[in-house]
């Protein structure tokens, strides 16, 4: 029977003028790539708690305003030490005012990207699709008159 692994993540964005900028962290692990904040649950945490903690640990961000109504899962399979594992990451959407990010040892550098820039540097198609959904969600909410979350 395959193993199950659960993690949580957060799509962090901030505004700069009229631009919506997304935080991506450059990681070097087996390969080099930009990714979103994510990590395993710790004992007693739910997905939202884990996402909040990971944002603090990986980027030094603790002024997150989580946007109600956005929760997306990404799943994939991988094999580690001969065991087949299905990983599920639950992502939330959160706005911040923090511009200066303090990355953890897991990452090399952070970057704030527009949706177009992010799509050019993200390697995994599932992450690109998730970011597009997040951007569409923000734009839709703005059209409904919810122009600022913070």
Summarize the SSE layout with pairings.
Blueprint: E1 3-16, E2 19-29, E3 31-35, E4 37-40, H1 47-59, E5 65-80, E6 83-95, E7 107-113, H2 115-121, H3 125-143
Parallel strand pairs: 1-6
Antiparallel strand pairs: 1-2, 1-4, 2-3, 2-7, 5-6
Structure description:
The chain starts with a strand and ends in a 7-residue tail after the last helix. The protein has a single domain (3-143), classed as Nucleoside Triphosphate Pyrophosphohydrolase. The mean pLDDT is 90. Helices cover 26% and strands 47% of the residues. It has helices spanning 47-59, 115-121, 125-143, and strands spanning 3-16, 19-29, 31-35, 37-40, 65-80, 83-95, 107-113. It is α+β, with helices and mostly antiparallel strands. Strands 1, 2, 3, 4, 5, 6 and 7 form a seven-stranded mixed sheet that branches. It is built from three helices and seven strands, in the order E-E-E-E-H-E-E-E-H-H.
SSE order in H/E notation? EEEEHEEEHH
Q: Strand share of the residues?
A: over 45%
Report, as a whole number of angstroms, the end-to-end distance: 45 Å
| Count of separate DSSP helical elements | 3
Shape estimate:
globular
* Arithmetic mean pLDDT: 90
| Record field, number of beta strands | 7
Q: What's this model, at a glance?
A:
By secondary structure, the protein is of the alpha+beta class. It has a single domain, classed as Nucleoside Triphosphate Pyrophosphohydrolase, CATH 3.90.79.10. It has helices at 47-59, 115-121, 125-143; strands spanning 3-16, 19-29, 31-35, 37-40, 65-80, 83-95, 107-113.
């Amino acid at each position: 029977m395959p193993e199950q692994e659960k993690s949580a993540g957060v799509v962090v964005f901030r505004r700069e003028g009229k631009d919506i900028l997304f935080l991506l962290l450059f990681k070097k692990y087996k390969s080099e790539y930009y990714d979103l904040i994510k990590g395993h649950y710790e004992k007693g945490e739910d997905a939202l708690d884990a996402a909040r903690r990971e944002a603090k640990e990986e980027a030094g961000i603790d002024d997150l305003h989580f946007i109600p109504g956005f929760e997306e899962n990404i799943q994939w399979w991988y094999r580690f030490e001969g065991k087949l594992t299905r990983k599920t990451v639950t992502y939330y959407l959160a706005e911040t005012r923090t511009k200066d990010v303090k990355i953890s040892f897991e990452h090399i550098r952070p970057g704030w990207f527009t949706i177009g820039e992010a799509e050019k540097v993200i390697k995994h198609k599932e992450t690109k699709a998730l970011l597009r959904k997040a951007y569409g969600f923000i734009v839709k909410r703005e059209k409904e008159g919810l122009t600022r979350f913070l």
